[in-house]
Write a structure and sequence with these properties.
471 residues; alpha+beta; Chloramphenicol Acetyltransferase; 2 domains; six-stranded mixed sheet; five-stranded mixed sheet; 18 strands; 22% strand; acyltransferase; acyltransferase activity, transferring groups other than amino-acyl groups; Plant_metabolite_acyltrans; CAT-like_dom_sf; transferase
Amino acid sequence: MASTHRAQVKILEVCQVTPSLNSLDSATELSFPLTFFDILFLKVTPAERLFFYKLTEATPGYFNSVILPKLKLSLSHTLLRFLPIAGNLIWPAQSTKPIILYALNDGVSVTIAQSNADFDHLSGNDVCEITESHPYVPQLSIITDSKASVLALQITLFPNQGISIGATVHHGVFDAKNVAMFIRAWAHVHKQFSENENADLITLLPELTPFLARTIIEDPDGIDMLYLNSWLGLNLPGLDTNHNRSLKLFKQAITDPHNKVRGLVRLSSEDIKNLRERVLCQIEKLHLDEETRPMHLSSFVLAYAYVFVCIFKAKGLGRDDKVVLGLTADCRARLGIPENYFGCCVMPFFVHIDPETVVQENGFLNVIERLSEIIVRLNKGVLDGAKEKYADFLAIRPGTLMVTVSGSPQFQIYKADFGWGMPRKVETTSIDKTASISMQENADGRGGIEIGLVLLKHEMEIFKSLFVAGL
């Protein structure tokens, strides 16, 4: 469990890193429109990610003289290619909706810190109290009601142990796939600087080069204003209804934070293969018609269903409880949008689960069937029902257990190598506020899926036991 040692985190510096102008590419003032995908997530709680790198040679002297200057330099050159990140989300008085504006001298807030915490504990597989991660992720700056930053970074030194990089991002500007793209691009640029000091020779791989033309997103039905007006008319705790045009974000408080823990479990490729074979045997045994009851047996669906069933049982839920499963579909390929498009391009889908079907002998299969129904719906038309997304969300009753997924194994987040090797661990810290689970590829690089989750302490103990026993 968590270390009894109380960590001390000292803030050494808070600075702003701006895009490099020492290049043939000149950064000028640019504005970027928000699409209906962006506006759907305009006031949603920021996403927080934490990357841990083992680096025993990182003494304070070496960190300050070598590591930190190169991180800042490579960040500056990376921002030149990702100008929306360096800008701000603003809502001009004469504009009907917010925009992203990059102006000269804009940049990203970077906090530099030092911690005496046990790096191996934080970056390992231990169950940790959720509050242990909080000092390493920065706060996103909401400067005024009409201006908000879109990214904040924190670089923390654990002397002679390693480094963490925390990123807090605005959901109304870019999605989880973009976060992975940006961090990987920064790491790629940093690694090139370590091998070559000539900035003109620094290049990005095509898949890490952002496509910034947001006008590619068509919206003939005016869904953007439908979503925006829904936000403006929403009366929920944490939203400022006195300033409807405010860019302040929805505040999601963490309930019982000192009794919640963060866990990480892994499904190997062999585990997923065995789960798939188990489901296929059940389908054959029950003589299910795959045409009328199609089963989507991707690694993602199998992992999601298996973890959810374990969570359901660990929480001791019963037939009277209300449960909703959600997933967020990447719309790029489905709408003919480039895979490297930089901006929100996801759509959420929800499905209600009958608790009684989860506790049955075929509960795992029943959950897969419900998730498969979502896959069928989004494959028919990922934007079908897009106008009703707010109504669908508001129809979910208070007290409902709503489980969603943050991230994807396809983002290859563990390829974010700054030249120190791949991260020892990548954590989606913000799931302690959203009740999501996180999902990404296994850190060992041998396939499989890594799942992060937050539960009460006693629930986590039961969950771990169920998870292992069921494989």
